Amino acid sequence: MLRSENLIAVGLMGLSGYFMLHATALPIGWVEGSGPGGGAFPFWLSAIMLAAATGILVRNLRSPRDADAAPFFDPETVRAVASVCVVLLITIALMPVVGAYVALPLMLLWYLRIFGGHGWRVVVPLVTITPVALFFFFEVTLRILLPKGITEPLFFPLYAAFF
Q1: Helix axis angle, 120-134 relative to 100-109, nearest 10°?
Q2: Please, what is the end-to-end C-alpha distance for the chain in angstroms?
Q3: Domain segments of the chain: what residues?
Q4: Contact partners, residue 124, CB within 8 Å, separation at least 6
Q5: If exposure means fewest CB atoms within 10 Å of the residue's CB, which of 23, 43, 46, 98 is most exposed?
Q6: Strand partners, 161
Q7: Could you tell me how far CA 39 lies from the centroid of its own chain?
Q8: What own/partner pairs with CB < 8 Å and gap ≥ 24 does 102-110 have?
Q9: Cα–Cα distance for residue pair 163/23, rounded to 1 Å
Q10: What letters, b where the CB count within 10 A reaches 16 and e where it falls short, cover 82-117?
């Protein structure tokens, strides 16, 4: 088990370095008058992922070796991870077509209601509030436009109100 975790940690560290390197193609600091640069969030999120993967690797290298006999994933875990990965790929494929404000709530609806088994009292507020919060955070506050696909004309009144 520790060997698998170590391999995944090293892989994540490599991916983090790759993402950080490519994020530096854009400004990663504060751009005067417009906010964080285009590479700021990818760079710092990758830095956090690098720190977390490094922490996992260091912890595993310090732990005893006899824990290696346990299986890394049981079949139920593999099934759960695979289903989430498939839904994430579907969500990413839907974003250019229907936009982030439709694709993300649909993914959230599936994740909370079907995968997580939560009740409608939890699901409906989260699925409703999340796209509104995303709009105000990314588009109004950070001025980072998310893909809208065929829903773009619905946002013209909001653009007129906030920009």
Answers
A1: 160
A2: 52
A3: 1-72, 75-162
A4: none
A5: 98
A6: none
A7: 15
A8: 102/149, 102/151, 104/130, 104/131, 104/134, 105/130, 105/131
A9: 27
A10: eeeeebeeebeebbeebbbbbbbbebbbbbbbeeee
Q: What is the pTM of this model?
A: 0.66
**Residue whose entry in the numeric block shows the structure tokens 């950080």:** 20
pLDDT tens readout for residues 56-100: 999 988 887 765 566 667 888 889 999 999 999 999 999 999 999
DSSP string over 9-67: HHHHHHHHHHHHHHHTTS--SEETTTEE-TTHHHHHHHHHHHHHHHHHHHHHHHS-GGG
**The token pair that represents 133 in the structure block:** 């919060």
Report which residue type is found at 140: V
